[in-house]
Amino acid sequence: MPRMGAASMDERPGLFVRAVDRDGGSIEFTIDGSPMTARAGDSLLAAILTNASLLRRLEFGGEPRAGFCLMGACQDCWVWLDDGRHVRACTTAAVAGLGVRTTPPALAEIRNV
Amino acid sequence: MSNVVVVGGGPAGIRAACMLAAHRLRPVLLDEARNVGGQGYRAPSPGLRLDMDALMGGEAAKYHALQAAFASIRDQIEYRPGTLVWAIEGKTLHVATDEGSSTVSFDALILATGAMDRIMPLPGWTLPGVFALGGAQVSLKDQGCFIGRRVAFCGSSPLLNLAALQYRKLGADVVAVCDTTPLGAKVRAAPQLAAAPRTMMRGISYLTSLMRAGTPMLHGVTLLRIEGKSRVEAIIVRDCRGRERRFACDAVALGYGLKPEAQLAELAGAEMRFDATSRLWLPKIDADGRAGRSLYLAGDSVVIGGADAAEASGELAARAVLSDLGIVHARSVARGLRRRVFRLRRFQRALARAFVWPANRVKDLSDDVALCRCENVSVGEIRRAMDQALGPIEVNRVKAITRCGMGRCQGRVCGPALQELVASHAGIPIEAAGRLRVQAPVKPIPLSVARTLAE
Ligand SMILES: Cc1cc2nc3c(=O)[nH]c(=O)nc-3n(C[C@H](O)[C@H](O)[C@H](O)COP(=O)(O)OP(=O)(O)OC[C@H]3O[C@@H](n4cnc5c(N)ncnc54)[C@H](O)[C@@H]3O)c2cc1C
Ligand code: FES
């Protein structure tokens, strides 16, 4: 994944940009197995979207989605976790050690074959 | 003692709980959110170094007052955050928490469930980087994050300029504010808006601050499409002189005002009727918020009125509960509140003329535009289903055939546009196209909860 820096803005991997700082330390988690860093207190959605430009891919067609209402109404932000849980990212707190998957487990397994 | 339950911890629900607590009723306050305050007066998540006073400007005092009011009644009520009410049967609420599902019974129920953005789709609106306008504010207040670095604010809503200004204040690049309502319509609504001079002046000051800062402010635009390969790269609009303009950006905030979250009210038995001003079906209430036996509605969940109306209508609904329980309270105060709520809600009707829902745009949407995000149903699929011999012209039938509105959001996002599409394609008035009916659960319940229910 491209890293942020002097490179052009569109190479910035995350959609979200932090406007203000947080107290509290950083936490480690993974997206599709790749290590990522977020901040304690982040929602799972903010944790993912400050690192990546999508939350999940649609089961059919694989179109990327990144949530929409950010208030628990549209249900566009449900992501799978490595432990099999399916959670609504905008209303779930990010915790250290979470493994997020952008594709449903079955689809991910097929791709890995 | 009577068991009074309030659903929703925004300004309406908090003021209702305060009134009930003052009469020692020890109400139960249920809120899906983990932090109190609702949408407009949402408190930042823990540890966020956000200066709410700077962000909220003139409204900061009201925010602090509401949070303080809640703190002062905290141990006189039973507050249960993180609690979703997902169904209502008789006098029983079905609730879900992280721990599982349970029920809460009530003698009187006040619903103060707020509102969400109303959306008219456009090509590219499902791309990552397009968010609801209210969501753009939530990400800032709740998470201290911009939805992107270069953001276009598009649609038509009193919150459009406010959100754009909040983003600017904190250092985002606001590439344009594209209001789809022509300036002329705003000027024509001005005499009615002058009924609330402070609110009108606040609106004008947002506009002038943005203009002084050099933000392109467009009125009367048509939003043509959002472009991008796997995320937003630009928005293309047609300005009021007919010129096509392209604004490079990495995020778009989109909204056309708010629509009530009235699903629980409907499940609880409130009568729904068509409101011609907003072109929405709204619960029917009396002047105090009564919607049926033991059922009271307050705040933006009934009709959009804004935060001040939410506070006043919350207290008013609680006073109606007191009256109906035969508990003495100051009736003269209730009369004042009734007038205030009436005035504030009437003002919002004038606002609807200054920030117009673009009902006609639905006709111009090309067949390949997704209407339903959940089930990925396109505008063309709906038109084709309707065009068949004996094809449906009623929204619930269209829903059953196409699955549009049947997904996880229960038509919250696509509902208003679907109703417009069905009406316009059938060539009938929108109220004749029917009303999307709600079903429990009003929001998806976690699998663990569904499992405990199955056992
Ligand atoms: C996303 C968004 C952002 C907004 N931002 C602003 C702003 O910055 N400034 C402004 O002036 N106005 C803003 N508004 C307008 C806002 O609607 C009003 O100002 C005000 O918050 C309305 O108050 P309320 O008490 O009626 O509802 P809300 O404040 O919306 O509170 C409703 C509460 O009900 C809870 N709830 C809903 N359904 C359920 C359920 N089924 N079970 C349990 N709990 C439930 C919600 O979690 C929420 O806490 C915003 C609106 C939205 C939708
Ligand atoms: S983004 Fe809409 S529910 Fe999470």
TrEMBL record, chain B:
Q: Which UniProt keywords apply?
A: Oxidoreductase
Locate the FAD/NAD(P)-binding domain: which residues?
3-313
> Which regions form coiled coils?
none
Can you give the residue ranges of the BFD-like [2Fe-2S]-binding domain?
A: 372-423
GO molecular function per UniProt:
oxidoreductase activity
The keyword Disulfide bond appears for this protein: no
What InterPro entries does the record point to? BFD-like_2Fe2S-bd_dom (IPR007419), BFD-like_2Fe2S-bd_dom_sf (IPR041854), FAD/NAD-bd_sf (IPR036188), FAD/NAD-binding_dom (IPR023753), Metab_Enz_Cyan_OpOx_G3PDH (IPR051691), Opine_Oxase_asu/HCN_bsu (IPR017224)
PANTHER family named in the record:
ANAEROBIC GLYCEROL-3-PHOSPHATE DEHYDROGENASE SUBUNIT B
* Protein name per its UniProtKB record: FAD/NAD(P)-binding oxidoreductase
